[in-house]
Design goal:
The chain is α+β, with helices and mostly antiparallel strands. It is built from seven helices and 14 strands. The chain has two domains: 133 residues, Aminopeptidase (3-Layer(aba) Sandwich); 122 residues, Aminopeptidase.
């Protein structure tokens, strides 16, 4: 008999071994570290902590991870779920749809798929997902003019509170610094403060001299900070900040690549570009 159920703490070793078989480029330590982070982080009440698995006579034969987080946008609270890292053993592939039906059945949750394999796109769209991000814009921020008086401050995992930022944004920056991201606050001469979270970028398993934008409060804030950020990153050997986009960004110097980095959603609210906070990219790593 095969059944679909939530992943429990006692399943984690078996789940990590299963994911190692499904994703040859990822190590046992990679999956173990990410699952430990999932075990420790705060999630909305009543939702799965790890995701779902296919259980065949007590043995996991398929897995779909889910990463839930509470969101606040324009004063409205919601729940977001990043569906991540699905693998089913070949002999049980006919049962794979059970995972999807179980994992994205809540009508009021916004579900994300931010790393779809190219061969799964038709199936994803059949399941009711819609593309919200068409590609990635690789900006070259050091070529942008630096706003006079703008300075860049590194935020650590213990930097709370943070002057000029709400408690929620300060907590986000601090939390992501604890995940190994580069959390920054750009402070303008007039007192404005712009939060950013960046992470070293990899494509096809290869590192790039680029940082991926994991979070900013508004993409429209980035051009004003680009020059200062670019000069800050050049000292650290990074020449580009890559951010989700649906075309070339006219206020920045760089180039757009599609469908590289395309992303999908399902649910009541279209996700905002350049907000990948609390997703697989930071919980498990790039």
């Amino acid at each position: 008999m095969i059944r679909c159920r939530q992943i429990e703490a006692g399943d984690l070793d078996a789940v990590a071994e299963l994911l190692c078989r499904g994703f040859a480029g990822r190590t046992r330590d990679y999956w173990g570290a990410g699952l430990r982070r999932q075990a420790e982080r705060t999630i909305p009440q009543g939702f799965p902590r790890f995701g779902y698995l296919l259980d065949y006579e007590g043995r996991p034969v398929g897995v779909l991870l889910s990463i839930y987080s509470a969101q606040h946008r324009d004063g409205v609270a919601s729940v977001r779920c990043n569906l991540s890292s699905c693998y089913v053993e070949p002999a049980f592939r006919n049962y794979a749809p059970m995972l999807g039906k179980m994992a994205h059945r809540e009508a009021d949750v916004v579900y994300l798929n931010i790393s779809p394999a190219s061969w799964t796109l038709q199936a994803i769209e059949t399941q009711g997902f819609h593309r919200y991000c068409g590609g990635i814009f690789f900006s070259l921020p050091a070529l942008s003019p630096a706003e006079k008086g703008m300075r860049v401050e590194i935020i650590g995992s213990e930097n709370l509170p943070i002057e000029g930022l709400t408690d929620a944004i300060a907590a986000l920056l601090s939390r992501h610094a604890g995940y190994g991201c580069l959390s920054l606050a750009c402070r303008a001469a007039d007192g404005r403060v712009f939060p950013f979270v960046l992470q070293p970028m990899r494509i096809g398993g290869l590192p790039l001299p680029a940082m991926q934008m994991i979070y900013c409060a508004d993409v429209a804030d980035y051009p004003a900070c680009a020059g200062a950020l670019g000069r800050f990153l050049l000292k650290r050997g990074r020449i580009s900040i890559a951010l989700d986009a649906n075309g070339h960004l006219d206020d920045l110097i760089g180039f757009y690549r599609a469908p590289l980095g395309c992303k999908y959603f399902k649910g009541p609210e279209r996700p905002r570009l350049a907000d990948l906070s609390d997703t697989e990219l930071v919980i498990f790593g790039p």
